[in-house]
Amino acid sequence: MLSISTSDGIAEAIVATPPGGTGPGVLFFMDAFGLRPRIQEMADEIASWGYVVLAPNVFYRDGTVAEVAPQGDLTTPAGRETFFTVAGPRIGHLTSELAVRDNDAYLAALRSLPDVTPGPVGVVGFCMGTRLAMRAAGHHPDEVAACAGFHGGGLITDASDSPHLELATARAEFLFGNADNDGSMTVQNVADLGAALDAAGLTATNEIYEGAPHGYTMSDTSSWNEAAFVRAFANLRDLYARTLN
Question: Which of 57, 92, 200, 212 minimizes the number of CB atoms within 10 Å of its CB?
Answer without folding.
Answer: 92
